[in-house]
Design a protein that fits this description.
The protein is mainly β. It is about 0% helix and about 45% strand. Strands 3, 4, 6, 9, 12, 14 and 15 form a 7-stranded antiparallel beta sheet that branches. Strands 5, 7, 8, 10, 11 and 13 form a 6-stranded antiparallel beta sheet that branches. Strand 10 (about 115-125) and strand 11 form a beta hairpin.
Length: about 200
């Protein structure tokens, strides 16, 4: 095998440079770095973790919710939204962007009164149907509030809609879905398309 030492390769004509022939394998060996300053593409499409979004609930956006009733979590701060796909507290998979997504959320769920929260759940819904739920119970020792978080991987199709619900079972009164206070990120919702 011959070794070619050069500092730069440019196409002889035009702006396209091809390395190898169809069926060949081009290998970047272990320990080497493949540094892409431009756009990396696969099959002509840019390779990136988009669409992606991150939404938060601010401290002033606390929701009072009915006891033992799943309620959609509202998010009033949009940190980023690469495809303008997050609106009205829901993420809708854009046209042509079906695929495998990492989805995560968290919610601070409270009772509003100390030692009143018996049970808390945060749900992920796809098209209005619960696909995942994460909960905890405190019946033997009720608490003031708790933060529940999760990450999940979902295969989604264009047009699928994701939302987050919170649930609080309290000894008396109403539950609450609380915002982020003191620079914490207790209540958040994000998703991004994975490169697979």
């Amino acid at each position: 095998m011959a070794t070619l030492f050069v500092d730069k390769l440019d196409p002889q004509s035009g702006t396209a440079l091809e390395i190898g022939t169809s069926g060949d394998t081009v290998t970047v060996p272990s320990g080497a770095t493949f540094n892409v300053a431009g756009t990396l593409q696969s099959g002509g499409a840019a390779v990136s973790n988009t669409p992606r979004f991150l939404a938060l609930k601010s401290d002033s956006a606390t929701q009072t919710i009915s006891d033992a009733t799943g309620t959609q979590v509202t998010f009033d701060v949009e940190v980023f939204d690469s495809n303008n796909a997050f609106a009205s507290n829901a993420f809708t998979v854009p046209s042509g962007e079906g695929g495998t997504y990492m989805v995560g959320a968290g919610c601070n769920i409270g009772a509003g009164t100390y030692s009143q929260l018996d049970h808390a759940i945060v749900y992920l819904l796809k098209n209005g149907t619960i696909t995942s739920n994460y909960g905890t119970a405190f019946q033997s020792n009720p608490v003031y509030n708790t933060t529940l978080t999760f990450t999940d991987i979902h295969v989604l199709s264009a047009g699928d809609v994701l939302t987050i619900n919170g649930y609080a079972n309290v000894n008396s009164g109403s539950g609450s879905l609380n915002g982020n206070a003191d620079s914490r990120r207790d209540t958040f919702f994000y998703a991004y398309k994975m490169i697979v």
